[in-house]
Amino acid sequence: TKKWTAKQVETSITFLRIWLKESLAKSEFWYNKNDLYVASWWLLGRIFSILYFVQPEGKLYEEFVDIVDDYNNEERSQDENIKRVINRIRKILKFSDDELKDSFFSTKYTFQTNKSVNREMIVKYLEASLNSANRFKSLGHLETEYMSLIYSLGLLLDHYVMDKDFTIELAKEYEAAHIDFLNASDPARLKKLYKNYYSSFKDRIKGLIGMQPDPTKMDLTNNKDRITVIKNLRSLYEEVLEGES
């Protein structure tokens, strides 16, 4: 298995810290407003983004899997589960760079190694996310509308084997929703990771969000660009769910 370069490891650690800090800040903000639903989306949505993009292995991967199990524990209240997840993410942020480096040692891609999923399951996941996104939109929660729309895509991509063409379609939109990672990551590494799905890396990047401007020049801290991505995600949802009512 090919070893990661020092630069690739540095990039992964940088984004891990940025994403977890943002996730905690957003989640705690809504938790303190007694909105457990929104708080949950920021925790779980970000974790699945990390699993898909940064692809930690070893100790860190096991830690994230345990965190998801903690969140889904039905013997405790949702309030208690969220508190536990927040505390565990705080502990991860205290890991030294040397500790984190042990979790990024190869470019092995673990994408699509789990069980197959049927159309009914896909529809169930997407409908749940879309319902949540609609709720957040009605409340004016733009950032959380965005997070809820990418949540199910990350879950499906990281845990299930699906039709190849459909997988490519999901991956395109999921990547487009993470422009910050594409902007700072190593193009050579991304080409390595996605070589099974695109013949031309340049064309893949250009095609991420259709006829929109170059995705790598977008800024998701800008509401206009975030709305563009939301629009494309919603179009994908509508395409998949059409006729499934």
Describe it.
- The chain is globular, with a radius of gyration of 17 Å.
- Residues 106-113 and 196-213 have low confidence and may be disordered.
- Helix content is 69%, strand content 0%.
- α1 (6-32) runs antiparallel to α2 (36-53), α3 (58-71) packs antiparallel against α4 (78-93) and α6 (119-138) runs antiparallel to α12.
- It contains twelve helices and no strands.
- The protein is mostly helical and 245 residues long.
- The chain has two domains: 1-108, Up-down Bundle (Four Helix Bundle (Hemerythrin (Met), subunit A)), CATH 1.20.120; 115-245, no CATH class.
What is the compact description of this entry?
With 245 residues, the chain is mainly α. The protein is built from 12 helices and no strands. The protein folds into 2 domains: 1-108, Four Helix Bundle (Hemerythrin (Met), subunit A) (Up-down Bundle), CATH 1.20.120; 115-245, no CATH class.
- Number of spatially distinct domains: 2
Number of helices in the DSSP assignment: 12
Range of strand content: under 5%
How would you state the average pLDDT, rounded? 72
- The SS-based structural class is mainly alpha
Radius of gyration, in Å, reads 17 Å
First and last CA, distance:
45 Å
String of helices and strands: HHHHHHHHHHHH
List keywords for this structure.
245 residues, mainly alpha, Four Helix Bundle (Hemerythrin (Met), subunit A), 12 helices, 69% helix
Secondary structure blueprint with pairings:
Layout: H1 6-32, H2 36-53, H3 58-71, H4 78-93, H5 97-101, H6 119-138, H7 142-159, H8 164-176, H9 179-184, H10 187-193, H11 201-206, H12 223-241
